[in-house]
Amino acid sequence: MSQSSDRRAFSIRPARGSDLDALVELENESFETDRISRRSFRHYLGLSTYLCLLVTTGAGAKETAIGYGLLSFRKGTAMARLYSLCISPKARGLGVGRALLEALEDAAFDRERLIIRLEVSEKNPVAIGLYEKAGYRKFGVYPDYYEDGSDAIRYEKWLRGHVNVRTNTPYYEQTTEFTCGPCCLLMALRRYHGKESEWWTKPGPQLEVRLWRESTTVFMTSGIGGCEPFGMAVAAGEYGLAPEVFVSTRRSPDQLLFLDSVRSAEKRRVMTLAQQDFRDRATAMGIPVHRRGLTAAAVAEQTAEGRVVLVLLSGYSMFGQRVPHWVLAHGASGRHVMIHDPWVENLRETQSDAANVPIPFAAFDRMSRYGRSGLRAAVVVGPKDGAK
């Protein structure tokens, strides 16, 4: 866990049941409203879905609590919530809050969480300043959230831990809500076709939509269609790359994709025609098709060989929406898959939040399934000449 530069001043450790008195004392001296009760503290300390870190000075009988932070972890997601952060008035201005926040972030990342979210009172400028200096970004407001009637400002931060994020794969941000897959393909084309190609010199909405038109399923459950693996593999092959398809479901190995929630018979008919055409073209082009998904470890092996992998993830784990979402895996560092996520949410994020995102192997394996059929889909892409 990260600590303050002055380790002699205080230490940070997990709170224990014997710390209940200290936690309640901190809570009462720091907050006038919305206090956590002794009973609630005891409940949180007994749950594996919560973590409380305590900041102390001294040791043994002279140990004194000067702050705590409480995280909650929702099962099945890549998010953690900073439920409460409390610094004793006597310890403010000593860097305790910054060190505690870093320790909480490290703890969340160690538990395979990629995002921390929190709420803070609009009347707490000190805490707001702490979070903003630490890289948290405002993304919403809860009106009349606290007992005194004040609003809660919502913040979040992507976590990166201490992972090496260097890559030679350029990043490209999608400009529509439905072109995540084509944007991943565009990034691959930029990597392998080099700085003299139009993919490098003219990247933008026109090329992005061109790739979408050439790989889309035409319809989704509503609105404009997204893309499926065979379509993107065919487009990659036609533009001079060497693709392979990995796809599996819990049902038939030849099952067509994204049809479970489509109620319109006409939409199903058109999507079926589009997907069957892609599969026939993939066969004619000699594109290898593997009837299995790729684990995080397998993705890491592919990237180690100089290839990139377009991977279908559940959008629910990434940004809370139950939609299929494509990302580009371009490397691995230790036990993390490194991805470029083409989606940058307006007003909440910048490209630095979406590029070179490390995802722990176990979290990646959970996220890379979609829908009731348990679809796992990936397109491995590399240069035809085998160069890296």
Summary, kept brief:
With 388 residues, this protein is of the alpha+beta class.
Which topology of the largest domain does CATH recognise?
A: Cathepsin B, Chain A
The tally of strands reads 14
Secondary-structure element string: EHHEEEHEHEEHHHHEHEHEHEEHEHE
Strands ordered across the widest β-sheet: 1-2-3-4-5-7-6
> What about the largest sheet?
7 strands, mixed
Could you report the average pLDDT, rounded to the nearest whole number? 86
Distance between the termini: 36 Å
Low-confidence stretches: 1-7
Structural class: alpha+beta
Helical content class: 25-40%
CATH architecture name of the largest domain: Alpha-Beta Complex
CATH C-level class of the largest domain is Alpha Beta
Number of domains: 2
Helix count, DSSP H or I runs of 4 or more residues: 13
The fraction of residues assigned to DSSP E strands is 15-25%
Shape: elongated
Whole-number radius of gyration? 24 Å
Query: Going by CATH, what is the homologous superfamily of the largest domain?
Result: Cysteine proteinases
Task: Characterise this structure.
With about 400 residues, the chain is α+β, with helices and mostly antiparallel strands. The chain contains 13 helices and 14 strands. It folds into two domains: about 10-160, Aminopeptidase, CATH 3.40.630; about 180-385, Alpha-Beta Complex (Cathepsin B, Chain A). It has helices at about 20-30, 40-45, 95-110, 125-135, 180-195, 200, 205-215, 230-240, 265-285, 295-305, 315-320, 350-355, 360-365, and strands at about 10-15, 50-55, 65-75, 80-85, 115-120, 135-140, 150-160, 240-250, 290, 310-315, 325-335, 335-340, 355-360, 375-385. A seven-stranded mixed β-sheet has the order 1-2-3-4-5-7-6, with helices on both faces. A seven-stranded mixed β-sheet has the order 9-8-14-10-11-12-13, with helices on both faces. β3 and β4 (about 80-85) form a beta hairpin. The longest helix is centred in the C-terminal third of the chain and has 20 residues, at about 265-285. It is elongated. Residues about 1-5 have low confidence and may be disordered.
